[in-house]
Write a structure and sequence with these properties.
Length: 132
């Protein structure tokens, strides 16, 4: 994975091809009980400041999901693709809510209803529901 800057924002880019279900990364780093702008939520009150996770952007058409402490591919990801996940799956309450550029939905956490995102596009939904 490559930490980089794309269009003036941080981004994480795949340096190899991934297939559906591949574990791309295991989040690791300083744990916090509350979210920050750069943390990734991996449990009810568990937010990790991971050196790669801080570069990951939201997408309502994501190619990964955060599952337990791992980043997993939800479809084939080609070299050069940006790695994204949908914040509303795992972030209970975002530290900095925002308007999604794609669907124009106000994204503030797991209560967000995104018109674009379809949970059935991946097979880990039961675990995600359990996390909520
Ligand atoms: Zn969106």
């Amino acid at each position: 994975m490559l930490k980089t800057i794309v269009w003036n924002r941080k981004a994480l880019v795949a340096l190899q091809r991934y297939n559906l279900g591949d574990t791309i990364h295991t989040f690791n780093g300083q744990m916090k009980a509350t979210p920050t702008k750069t943390s990734v939520q991996i449990g009810l009150h568990a937010h990790v400041e991971d050196e790669y996770g801080t570069f990951m952007n939201h997408s309502c058409l994501p190619n990964t999901i955060v599952h337990n402490q791992q980043l997993i591919a939800t479809r084939t990801i080609n070299v050069g693709s940006e790695l994204t996940y949908n914040y509303i799956n795992t972030e209970t309450t975002l530290c900095k809510p925002f308007i999604c550029h794609f669907c124009h939905t106000y994204i503030d956490g797991t209560n967000t209803v995104c018109p674009t995102y379809k949970k059935h596009t991946f097979s880990f939904s039961n675990d995600i529901v359990a996390l909520r």
